[in-house]
Write a structure and sequence with these properties.
With 510 residues, this protein is an all-alpha fold. It is built from 20 helices and two strands. It has a two-stranded antiparallel sheet with strand order 1-2.
Length: 510
């Protein structure tokens, strides 16, 4: 749950805020905090009398006002390289969001102790994990708009949600006692946030952007959060233990790419790997990913050679036309041959843009594989414990591919990890979508082959660039990538064939 909050800081690894966008970010943060306040008030009313919720709201407002008065006595207060008023506001925002996590953690623990037991608790946990992403974005927007680095914004976003898993355990053990205190606690956290939004966050937003822009940003973020809450309320009532197993395994599908990205970055930093080697490694992995499923389908006679070749060509043509269009638009705005106007923290060259396009092809591949997982995961008994290892192994090369591609193009390790995390998130999104829509496996092989075809032209451009830099090192990287990806996918298949995972979706693994 807490780790999901850190995903809200990912955009700030790529985007620098100008003053107007800082104001809009504060407006969006205000909307997210207000929506979270409404949800806390509603949750408190479900657990007890509304009087305690009202009392908590008033107590929270008074408490945060007293905290502000206390901090104003110390003009030299500092935090995260910030001093004075900015530091005091950051302390208040982080403190309030941390307080509100205590209420959510209590709700998780009480839900596990409810009549539906583990299934209901797991669904609530997944819902709060997804809900934490925009809340992490809200915290990160407040910090980033004041010049805090993306790394620190991610760290403090995660810290604000740490009370959730910590409080969930005692609240599960003492569910009756916690359910009695929950109305006051949720009201208290809501009161703190409402006061902070009106007194601090919105006034800062109005300094940098117009009132209509701030109001629009806040309204849209409130609407999004309420839509998300409504969806998960219906979601928790309408789905059974099989679906809970599927959702759990689908989220695990995102860990493999992130772990693969971490492994690649650690090796790159430890051994000072050169750009040509890294880009060659990315291409080797991508070529194996692109060939693996089509070869499986041909060898198993599920699809003929000509249909597979045709689908690969269509996928390759689609990605080639799309990437060419993007590069032409970028080239029309470039300031020089290799230097494009940048929105990121590092110079954006044509070659860097090609690397990002290649990562987009990997994301399309991840979405296709996520659909197959969404068909298989709900059928896995025991909350899919047999699927954890093969699913994680299968995602390792994907994360290593995008991380090495971005690291080789930008020399940015945090950008590489952020990209691996984003790509890792693609698979769970499509897997959960497949579960919600109830699709079957028919036609998914064709989508997979299309996605595999898209990897070839996109990484073909990257390998050309790598060979022009250093032919020997890029060739070595290509061999390493092919070996690493083949090893991971082979082990995935071996693990699958000796566990009940194959019985979940034999179409996907045989």
């Amino acid at each position: 749950m807490a780790a999901a909050t850190g995903l809200g800081a990912v955009p700030f690894f790529f985007v620098e805020l100008d003053p107007q966008w800082a104001g809009l970010c504060n407006g969006m943060a205000a909307g997210v905090m207000l929506a979270a306040s409404f949800d806390l008030i509603q949750e408190g009313q479900e657990y007890g009398a509304g009087n305690w919720v009202v009392t908590g709201i008033l107590a929270g407002g008074i408490f945060i006002w007293l905290c502000k008065k206390f901090l104003e006595q110390y003009e030299e207060v500092s935090m995260l390289d910030l001093k004075g008023a900015d530091a005091a506001k950051v302390v208040l925002v982080i403190g309030i969001m941390t307080l509100h996590s205590f209420g959510e953690g209590s709700g998780v623990g009480v839900s596990f102790a409810g009549s539906k037991g583990f299934t209901q608790g797991l669904l609530v946990t997944l819902a709060i994990a997804v809900h934490n992403i925009p809340e992490g974005l809200a915290v990160s927007m407040v910090l980033a708009s004041r010049g805090v680095s993306p790394q620190n914004a991610m760290l403090w976003s995660i810290i604000t949600s740490l009370p959730q898993p910590i409080v969930a355990v005692p609240s599960f053990i003492c569910a009756d006692a916690f359910s009695k205190f929950l109305p006051f606690c949720t009201g208290f956290a809501a009161g703190c946030m409402i006061w902070m939004v009106v007194a601090e966050v919105l006034p800062d937003a109005f300094k940098e952007a117009s009132a209509s822009q701030v109001a629009s940003a806040a309204t849209l973020s409130v609407a999004f959060m309420e839509a998300l809450s409504t969806f998960f309320q219906n979601f928790s009532h309408d789905y059974n233990s099989e679906d809970a197993s599927g959702f759990f395994v689908s989220l695990l599908f995102g860990l493999g790419p992130l772990l693969g990205g971490i492994i690649l970055v650690v090796f790159a930093l430890a051994f000072h790997l050169q750009h040509a080697l890294l880009m060659g490694t990315a291409c080797g992995i991508a070529f194996v990913l692109g060939a693996w499923r089509p070869v499986q389908l041909i060898l198993s006679s599920k699809l003929g050679f000509i249909p597979v070749l045709l689908l690969l060509a269509i996928g390759a043509a689609f990605i080639h036309v799309s990437s060419s269009g993007v590069l032409k638009v970028a080239a029309s705005k470039k300031a020089s041959v290799n230097d494009l106007p940048t929105l990121t923290g590092f110079p954006l060259s044509v070659h860097t843009l090609q690397s990002f396009i290649s990562c987009g092809a990997v994301a399309f591949h991840a979405l296709a594989e996520g659909l197959a997982l969404g068909v298989a995961a709900p059928k896995a008994y025991g909350l899919g414990r047999h699927m954890v290892l093969p699913v994680s192994l299968h995602g390792l090369p994907r994360g290593a591919a995008v991380a090495s591609c971005i690291f080789g193009a930008t020399d940015s390790w945090h950008g590489s990890l952020a990209t691996a995390a984003i790509i890792g998130f693609m698979g769970p999104i499509s897997a959960i979508g497949a579960i919600l829509t109830g699709i079957d496996y028919s036609g998914l092989d064709h989508i997979m082959v299309l996605a595999c075809g898209g990897l070839i032209p996109s990484f073909g451009n990257v390998v050309k660039r790598a060979l022009s830099l250093d032919k020997r090192k890029s060739t070595c990287g290509l061999i390493m990538g092919i070996g690493f990806a083949t090893l991971c996918l082979t082990f995935t298949r071996l693990v699958c064939l000796h566990t009940p995972y194959c019985n979940s979706a034999p179409e996907a693994v045989r």
